[in-house]
Amino acid sequence: MGKERNNNRGRGKSRKADLKLRAKGRTIPGTHVPVLAEKVLTTLKPQPGEIVVDCTLGYGAHAVAFGKRIGTNGRLIGLDMDGDELAKTQRRIGKGGARKSFHHTNFSKIAEVLKSEQLDGCDIIFADLGVSSMQVDNADRGISYKSDGPLDMRMDKRLAATGADLLITLSEEELSKALWELSDEPDHATIAEWIVNQRCITAITQVSQLVRLVFNVKGMTERTWQKKQKTARFGSLHPAARTFQALRIVVNDEMGSLRKLLEVAPSCLRAGGRIGIISFQSGEDRLVKQAFDQGYSSGSYETISKDAIRPRTKEVITNPRCSSARFRWGKIHS
Q: What is the pTM of this model?
C-alpha cells in the first residue's frame, strides 16, 4: 500500500513538473503536446478502414489518434522532413494497429508518395505546420531563441543552407521583407539593417548573437525584458521570436512547400476526402484560407471551414505554444 502511495505521489510530482514546464512554453524533453487534437478528430472524422496521410508526423501524437479511429483495416502514412525524429517516431508507433508506412520527405511530395504506395488517393490529409517541441528544445538545431547553439534551423539535414548561411547571403531588402511577411515583425527594417551591418564585422553564427542583436534593436536587454514580463499579458512573445520564426521559414522554404501541398491536395483526395491544416503564422493562414476559398469557388471543395478554429483558453494555459494556432479544413465532393 505504501509503495502504491509513493508511486502516486511520484506521478503527481511529475504532472506538476510537466505543468510548470508547459507554463513556460516548454514540454518534457523528448515529448510533444498535440494541438487541437479533439477538434481535429471531430472535424475530419476518420473512419475505420480509411487512408490517412499525416504530412507532419513529428512525435506522432496526432497520427496515433488517427490510427485508433481507422483501426487495423485502415492505413496510416506518415511524412516528415526530419529524418532523425522520423526514425524515433517510427520505432515508437510503428507496431500494432493500423497499417503504417513512413517517408522521409517534404509534404509537397505527397502525390509522389501516394504513387509509390500504389494508391489512387487518400481519405484524409492532415498537416500541423508548427515546429515540434523536440526540435524547439534541441539547442543543436538553433531553431529557438531560448538556448544558445549554432544557427542551423534546418528541418532536413539534406538542405544545403543553414540560418547562419542566409544571414550572410540575403540582402537587407530580402531580410526585411521576410521578417515582415513571414512573422509580422514591426521592427523588420531596422533588424535587417543591423544584421547587414553586423555581418560586415563578424558573421552571425550563434543563437545568442542574433538574440542579442534583436534586443539591441528594441532597446532592451534580457534582464529588462524579464522584468517587463512580470507585468506583461499572458502569452506575450519574446522579442526575438518573430525573427527566429521568419528565418526558420526561409531556411526550410516552408511557404513554397505549403503552396505546393495546397495545389495538389484536391487531386490526392478520394471522393468525400477531407483535408485539415493547423497553421501558426498569419502568412501561412492566409495561404490556407485563400486556397480553400479558391477551391470552393472552383468546385474542387464541396465545403470548407467558414472560420479558423482556435484553441480554447484552457488548452492555451496548459500548452502556451498553441496560442496562435488556427485550424482550417475542406471536404471534396462525395
A: 0.85
